[in-house]
Known about the structure:
By secondary structure, the protein is of the alpha/beta class. Helix content is 37%, strand content 12%. Among the domains are: 51 residues; 154 residues, Leucine-rich repeat, LRR (right-handed beta-alpha superhelix) (Alpha-Beta Horseshoe), CATH 3.80.10; 69 residues.
Amino acid sequence: xxxxxxxxxxxxxxxxxxxxxxxxxxxxxxxxxxxxxxxxxxxxxxxxxxxxxxxxxxxxxxxxxxxxxxxxxxxxxxxxxxxxxxxxxxxxxxxxxxxxxxxxxxxxxxxxxxxxxxxxxxxxxxxxxxxxxxxxxxxxxxxxxxxxxxxxxxxxxxxxxxxxxxxxxxxxxxxxxxxxxxxxxxxxxxxxxxxxxxxxxxxxxxxxxxxxxxxxxxxxxxxxxxxxxxxxxxxxxxxxxxxxxxxxxxxxxxxxxxxxxxxxxxxxxxxxxxxxxxxxxxxxxxxxxxxxxxxxxxxxxxxxxxxxxxxxxxxxxxxxxxxxxxxxxxxxxxxxxxxxxxxxxxxxxxxxxxxxxxxxxxxxxxxxxxxxxxxxxxxxxxxxxxxxxxxxxxxxxxxxxxxxxxxxxxxxxxxxxxxxxxxxxxxxxxxxxxxxxxxxxxxxxxxxxxxxxxxxxxxxxxxxxxxxxxxxxxxxxxxxxxxxxxxxxxxxxxxxxxxxxxxxxxxxxxxxxxxxxxxxxxxxxxxxxxxxxxxxxxxxxxxxxxxxxxxxxxxxxxxxxxxxxxxxxxxxxxxxxxxxxxxxxxxxxxxxxxxxxxxxxxxxxxxxxxxxxxxxxxxxxxxxxxxxxxxxxxxxxxxxxxxxxxxxxxxxxxxxxxxxxxxxxxxx
Length: 668
């Protein structure tokens, strides 16, 4: 299709003079049909002049009646041109049954009618009229060319009997769907440019179609084109095609030799030409430009690179999706774990409380119900265990740890290069108490890490920040509000600045730390460290600080640290030396497990002491009871002792003999 007018060749076998071909030509001035059609051979020469007609009218007929002179009929017996006659209806054409060409271009006709008697008509041109519906053509079985461009047609219909149609021009209408043309197996040229099409479909059955014009539509997807065995030229300029996947069926067409995509979003892509040429090796022209062998070779190379890029992109997409699913699984497990902890805490609290009265009856938590909920939570965890329960990922200079199992990665043999580039360590869905246990390893494995991030780590109390003091250096700290209730405390940032004062923190949650913040932190929590150090026993202080802290501790006992001015100087010195303040070091964090161990130890000691005291009390009670009994029995016992003694010494000689005998017996 070119924009140079119309040139047709129609083969016919019923022309009087068969020795010469009949050519009908309409130049650009005679027609506004802006696309090259086909040149049809007719068996008679065309003189090139227009027919002059006279119209008569009758009072009993509402349509104009065409009358031609005998001379005109002889000169142009098989053609009639009525263009630019300001016609609003098709005139009645009597006595012209032999007509083969009829031209109604550039009129105001709104309906096709009064031509059903022209059964030998081969060429019908109704370009640039006001026709809204295709009709009145059922008897024109010989029609080969039908030109209905630039009308108001909204639907393709009533073409069932035009099985010999060779050219169908419907450009410049309001058609939104391709339909009712699958029976036109002789159709070679179909022009649907400048319509309202969005999808190209329903082209099955057009076995003879060689040219399809779809310029200036709203096409975004193409179907069925690969089923057209003879299609050679396809024009898709100025549509909405944005990806090669939308036109993938074109790659399966082996007959296409000329195609246009200019004016589409896809044509703006850098890979456009190379991709099209790679998938359509049989093309000779692309966007009206001839394709060279060098372009084909370059397209093949570029296409291979693009395929590699797509495979890599697909691989990365799969990895990202796997990562997303794993993180979702870890998040669900974390949520289930937190719900279980909350449930256990609730049950323990209910055991300690009295049953509440509801409507006069006591409300209890039934063990069956609690076990049922616990079973549900367990089954949910088992269902999610198919996916990974933790994830370790290095993104640039950030080490991301998802799930408690990710902490085990710190035991790996990290390469020096990888460990050296890690600046940020991010913890997600991990209990803070479990993180505390690996902070020492973290300090050793990644010596350049200066930024810690916490999200969903159950940071609840200010005391937990004390554990971060064992790191060797922290410049930035980020605590996400999600899963960390401590962020809701107003003074948490000031406590962090106070407790981790020796790190010289630069940013907290992305906000730069100022000198005013440091001063405010000291004012708010300075007395806290002093109280903590004052209440701690001396032996605990010595064991806590070791030899390197004893000198500072003795200075503290002498009162040097009690004055605010001297305390400030000490803090400044400690910050300059990069050491931890003596008083701040007394603020430690005890993990839940360690706390539970301590509680168990205290409980055991309490039990031992209670048992020991109970035994002492029991023994004292027994002694007291025996003493009371002795006091009651002693008078009688004393009387009996005196009586026995008197009886024994009453006979002095016998008594002396008895005593001597006892002495002898003892010696023997």
